Amino acid sequence: QVQLVESGGGLVQAGGSLRLSCAASGRTFSTYAMGWFRQVPGKEREFVATISRSGGITYYAESVKGRFTISRDNARSMVYLQMNSLKPEDTAVYYCATRLVVAATTTPSDYAYWGQGTQVTVSS
Question: Is residue 118's pLDDT more than 90?
Answer without folding.
Answer: yes
